[in-house]
Recover the amino acids of this structure.
């Protein structure tokens, strides 16, 4: 069945009143509008902003800016450094696209980001690995910049998993960027997207269920 | 006559709902099942998603200290349970507690969550629920987070995630509310073989579709952090952002799908909620998605905005019309967001931002 992405006009209610001949077209429009809701509008998404310390020797403790105090700084500790993003999936969460907003620093080491999908049994951060995941690295997938002191700082960079339609992966080490795959048994669960960074600082992570244009009933 | 539904949801065979085909029981039953599923589960994913790094969200207060506040949409009047997951730690693990308030106007529900980890992502996150027991038709609610550390210790929050708990099958009988709209669940027995296809089914289905189209979605949600405290200097701990700052503007947004047809129905909207602190008087002007909002209240304030921005290039990959939902990176914003010239300690500042679409 084709899944529309727009709120198309619904049939006139009077067409369903007593004494009217109900046409197949009416039911078709209702089916289409309902599929738009279940398989498009109500697909899951999560939009994480990642805040860091705002402290600066220049303006001390004023605490503003959800980004870093000198634009996107990369700390020494950001090497093999983990974050856990919780995502309440839906029954239709088969593939998850990831959009990352980040800054990087090539002087520290080669910037990289690994995303892995885990279950959250017992609320554990080390739950069962559902997808060994994907890796973005510089220079292929990530920007890698170093700004001399005094130069204008660049805006944050964006990285993307893409939306390719994939089958259940069998990798045991991270693949090149692709959507993460949610096994059918875990769709609708609270999921943990573990992200490991090196020479990168994250400022936002966006997670999306993926829309499919055509679904077999 | 159970208002049941299945999950995964079932679609109809499109070949059976066209002109010249008879209207089969199967299709009507599946449509009824699917509309019940949409009411029960639609929008029951993250309404709050935020992480705080670098020990930036911490307190050493041994009484509950209010530290963050979000505005969230209510997905229906029946979705009464909010699930909250907190990622936090305290070196001693004893008595570190979070208190969450869920406010509908003046009615407040509270829960406390014990925080058990003793190190950053040490073992497990902690969960809690708040259930509203009264009847509320509010379109949004406010979530407030307070933390309390054991005496002489500090508690650090790493992240928060919250979602409304989806309803289970079958749905309650009778008309159900979604703000001031009505949803009529569909009983499966009535759709079975040899039952008449009533006019009522069609009218109710159209009304239900309109109600569900109006169900809000979170496009962007952010809270600043306040009242941080630490025995360490602020250069080391407790310097989380209170306010949106000038450096945020280039990427303080989500890329989200907005659906064609939204602007053709006056019941479908894009709404921006902002929270100003340290406000006394005057107007501040904030640019959001091509609209200039006038902020002039020290409380939460909402603005409906027009749909004026262009699609982002990633639309093509998602197969949907995607837009930038967040602050615009315009020069005029410098007069509103915090900066060295407008530090939050001495100026009104934006400490909360929520963008809701349909």
């Amino acid at each position: 069945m084709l899944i529309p992405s727009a709120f198309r006009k619904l049939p006139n209610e009077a067409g369903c009143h007593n004494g009217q001949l109900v046409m197949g077209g009416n039911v078709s429009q209702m089916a289409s509008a309902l599929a738009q809701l279940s398989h498009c509008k109500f697909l899951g998404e999560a939009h994480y902003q990642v805040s860091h310390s705002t402290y600066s020797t220049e303006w001390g403790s004023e605490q503003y800016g959800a980004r870093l105090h000198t634009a996107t700084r990369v700390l020494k500790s950001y090497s093999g450094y983990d974050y856990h993003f919780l995502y309440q999936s839906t029954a239709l969460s088969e593939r998850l696209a990831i959009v990352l907003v980040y800054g990087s620093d090539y002087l520290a080491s080669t910037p990289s980001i690994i995303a892995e999908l885990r279950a959250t049994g017992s609320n554990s951060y080390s739950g069962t690995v559902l997808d060994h995941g994907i890796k973005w690295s510089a220079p292929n997938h990530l920007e890698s910049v170093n700004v001399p002191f005094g130069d204008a700082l660049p805006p944050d960079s964006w990285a993307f998993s893409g939306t390719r339609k994939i089958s259940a992966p069998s990798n045991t080490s991270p693949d090149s960027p692709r959507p993460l795959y949610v096994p059918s048994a875990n769709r609708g669960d609270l999921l943990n997207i573990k992200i490991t960074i090196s020479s990168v600082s994250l400022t936002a992570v966006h997670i999306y269920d993926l829309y499919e244009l055509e679904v077999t009933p | 006559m159970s208002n049941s539904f299945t999950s995964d949801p079932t679609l109809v065979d499109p070949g059976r709902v066209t002109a010249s085909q008879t209207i089969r029981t199967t299709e009507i039953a599946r449509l009824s099942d699917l509309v019940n599923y949409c009411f029960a589960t639609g929008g029951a994913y993250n309404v709050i998603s935020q992480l705080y790094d670098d020990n930036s969200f911490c307190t050493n207060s041994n009484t509950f200290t209010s530290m963050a506040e979000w505005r969230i949409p209510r997905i229906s009047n029946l979705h009464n349970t909010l699930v909250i997951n907190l990622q936090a730690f305290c070196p001693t693990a004893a008595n570190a507690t979070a208190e969450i308030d869920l406010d509908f106007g003046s009615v407040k529900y509270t829960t406390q969550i014990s925080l058990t980890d003793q190190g950053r992502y040490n073992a497990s996150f902690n969960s809690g629920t708040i259930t509203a027991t009264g009847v509320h038709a509010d379109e949004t609610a406010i979530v407030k987070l307070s933390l309390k550390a054991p005496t002489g210790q500090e508690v650090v929050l790493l992240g928060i995630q919250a979602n409304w708990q989806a309803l289970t099958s079958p749905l309650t009988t009778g008309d159900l509310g979604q703000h001031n709209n009505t949803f009529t669940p569909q009983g499966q027995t009535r759709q079975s073989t040899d039952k008449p296809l009533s006019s009522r089914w069609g009218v109710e289905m159209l009304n239900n579709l309109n109600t569900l189209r109006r169900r809000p979605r979170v496009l962007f949600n952010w809270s600043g952090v306040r009242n941080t405290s630490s025995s360490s200097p602020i250069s080391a701990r407790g310097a989380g952002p209170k306010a949106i700052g000038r450096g945020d503007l280039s990427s303080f947004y989500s890329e989200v799908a907005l659906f064609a047809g939204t602007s053709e129905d006056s019941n479908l909207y894009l709404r921006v909620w902002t929270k100003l602190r340290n406000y006394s008087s005057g107007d501040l002007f904030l640019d959001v998605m091509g609209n200039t909002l006038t902020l002039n209240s020290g409380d939460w304030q909402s603005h409906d905005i027009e749909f004026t921005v262009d699609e982002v290039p990633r639309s093509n990959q998602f197969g949907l019309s995607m837009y930038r939902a967040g602050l615009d990176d315009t020069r005029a914003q410098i007069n509103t967001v915090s900066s060295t010239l407008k530090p939050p300690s001495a100026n009104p500042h934006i400490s909360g931002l929520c963008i809701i679409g349909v």
About this structure: Chain A has two domains: 1-42, 45-209. The beta strands of chain A are 45-51, 79-88, 95-104, 112-119, 129-137, 157-160, 180-181, 190-198, 200-209. Chain A has a mean pLDDT of 89.
